[in-house]
């Protein structure tokens, strides 16, 4: 398959290569990829800012169709449309994993960094962490939810905001724009957006009546 991988001497760019994917494990699924976005974290990985990850397939903003499932998988079936997100797998039994804070797991694996990600024709996901994506949702729009979307959603969720509460969102850029939408349209909050640099982003939020 074709895949975008970190160069042998990381310099901020990726090489498009032919790469053979490993066999899936019993708890995993194999995907035919539809789309994969580029996160700024991908640029850091490609530049070697987090260590030399040469040969690793980049990408954690992916959407794909399940083409094969492992022998222990019951949550997915062939044909399901699912995400390839930054969180690939946790240990499942540490204090963080059992309390819903698995992103802090000390044995965490991340797609496009410590394991191969979604910038390829095929990708592997752990079935229990693959989120199903509605068939009618554009993969380009869905891809941002797998990273910036879940980041901002979780932040608003743990804030405990209730319908009718006021919530201030600092920063109206890519993540901030999604946070504004979640706060207003999902949590029913009244939103104040603050940004000292991106006036154009604030104007966009006003235009879309997000504030």
TrEMBL record:
<feature type="domain" description="Alcohol dehydrogenase-like N-terminal">
    <location>
        <begin position="25"/>
        <end position="135"/>
    </location>
</feature>
<dbReference type="InterPro" id="IPR002328">
    <property type="entry name" value="ADH_Zn_CS"/>
</dbReference>
<dbReference type="GO" id="GO:0008270">
    <property type="term" value="F:zinc ion binding"/>
</dbReference>
<keyword id="KW-0479">Metal-binding</keyword>
<protein>
    <recommendedName>
        <fullName>Alcohol dehydrogenase</fullName>
        <ecNumber>1.1.1.1</ecNumber>
    </recommendedName>
</protein>
<comment type="similarity">
    <text>Belongs to the zinc-containing alcohol dehydrogenase family.</text>
</comment>
<dbReference type="InterPro" id="IPR013154">
    <property type="entry name" value="ADH-like_N"/>
</dbReference>
<keyword id="KW-0560">Oxidoreductase</keyword>
<keyword id="KW-0862">Zinc</keyword>
<dbReference type="GO" id="GO:0004022">
    <property type="term" value="F:alcohol dehydrogenase (NAD+) activity"/>
</dbReference>
<dbReference type="Pfam" id="PF08240">
    <property type="entry name" value="ADH_N"/>
</dbReference>
<dbReference type="InterPro" id="IPR036291">
    <property type="entry name" value="NAD(P)-bd_dom_sf"/>
</dbReference>
<dbReference type="InterPro" id="IPR011032">
    <property type="entry name" value="GroES-like_sf"/>
</dbReference>
């Amino acid at each position: 398959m074709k895949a975008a991988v970190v160069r042998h001497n990381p310099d901020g760019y990726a090489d498009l290569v032919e790469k053979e994917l490993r066999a899936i494990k019993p708890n995993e699924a194999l995907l035919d990829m539809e789309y994969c976005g580029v996160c700024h974290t991908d640029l850091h990985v490609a530049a070697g800012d987090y260590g030399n990850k040469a040969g690793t397939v980049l990408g954690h903003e992916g959407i794909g169709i399940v083409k094969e499932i492992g022998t222990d998988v019951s949550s997915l079936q062939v044909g399901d449309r699912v995400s390839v997100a930054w969180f690939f797998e946790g240990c499942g039994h540490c204090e963080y994993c059992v309390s819903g804070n698995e992103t802090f797991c000390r044995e965490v694996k991340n797609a496009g960094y410590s394991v191969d990600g979604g910038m390829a024709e095929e990708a592997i996901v752990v079935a229990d962490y693959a989120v199903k994506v509605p068939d009618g949702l554009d993969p380009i729009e869905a891809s941002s939810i797998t990273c910036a979307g879940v980041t901002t959603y979780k932040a608003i969720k743990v804030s405990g905001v209730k319908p009718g509460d006021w919530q201030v969102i600092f920063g109206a850029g890519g993540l901030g724009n999604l946070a504004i939408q979640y706060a207003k349209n999902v949590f029913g909050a009244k939103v104040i957006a603050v940004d000292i640099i991106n006036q154009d982003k604030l104007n966009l939020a006003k235009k879309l009546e997000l504030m």
